[in-house]
Amino acid sequence: DNGTMVQAAVTDLKTYIGGALTSLGSSDSTTNAANVVFDNVFSDTYSRYIIYIDTMMPATDGASVYFKFRKSDGSGGYEDESGTGYVYNVRHIRGGGNVYNDSATSGGAQTFGRISGAVKSSTGEHGLKARVDVYRPGTRQSQATMTYVRCDGTYRSHANDDSMSVILSSACNNYNTTTFLGIKFYFSSGDVDDHKIRVYGVTT
Fold first, then answer.
1. Residues 6 or more apart from 151 whose CB is under 8 A from it?
2. CA distances from 110 to 77, 80, 155, 158, 181 (A)
3. Which of 19, 62, 109, 184 is the most buried (most CB within 10 A)?
4. What is the CA radius of gyration of the chain?
5. Residue 16: is it exposed, middle or buried by C-beta count within 10 angstroms (0-12/13-18/19+)?
6. What is the reported pTM?
7. pLDDT tens digits, 4-51
8. Distance of alpha carbon 61 from the chain centroid
9. pLDDT at 104 > cutoff 80
10. What are residue 103's DSSP bridge partners?
C-alpha cells in the first residue's frame, strides 16, 4: 500500500545519506536580506551535517554564493570566522562542454568560503539549488582538525549560458582549528533576494 511504499522510500533515503536526519534549523523568506545565518547548529552531537538549499536567489545578477563559519564571540554570542584560512575548489559545467573553474589554494587562502560560480538573477530563474555537506571534526579522529564543506547543485549560469542549468560541484575547508558552531551564507555582491534553506544533523 501507499504507506508501505512511503516508509520504504524513507528507509532508502536514510541508507543513502548514511543515517537518520535531525532538523536543527531552517530559514525561509521572500524578503531581501544581507545574509542567512544559522548559529548554534554544529556541536559534538554530530560529525556530519546536510544543508538543503531549495533556493537561494541573488538580488545582483552574476553574484556567487559565499559562506563563513560562525564561532563563539567569547561573550555568549556568535561571530564570523573571518580570518584567512578558507580554501576551495569550484567547478560548474555549462552546455557545449564549457567549464568554469575557480580555486583558492593554501598559498592564497581567503577570508571566506565559496561554493558556486556566477548565478543568474533574472525574472523566471530560481537561484541556487543544492545539497551542502558539512563535516565537523569529531573526537574519534583527533587528527581531523579541519571542517570540510562539499556542495553539489545546479543553477543557471550568469555568463555565456544557453538556458540550461549548470552542473555544480565544489569543495571547501578551513584550515584553522577553531570550533565552528554555525554557518552564514551570502552572495559576493548584493543581497539574498529570497531563500529556503534547511539544516540537518546526520546520525552516522
1. 115, 116, 130, 131, 132, 133, 168, 169, 170, 171, 172
2. 24, 13, 24, 23, 20
3. 184
4. 17
5. exposed
6. 0.87
7. 655 655 555 555 555 699 999 999 999 999 999 999 999 989 989 999
8. 19
9. yes
10. 89
Which residue carries 563559519 as its cell? 69
Q: Which residue has the higher pLDDT, 170 or 99?
A: 170
Contact by Cβ (8 Å): 91, 98: no
Using 50, 70 and 90 to split pLDDT, how confident is the model at 145?
confident
* Backbone φ/ψ region at 40: left (φ over 0), alpha (ψ -120 to 50), beta: left
Place of cell 567549464: 99
Reading the block at residue 176, the C-alpha cell is 584553522
Amino acid at 34: A
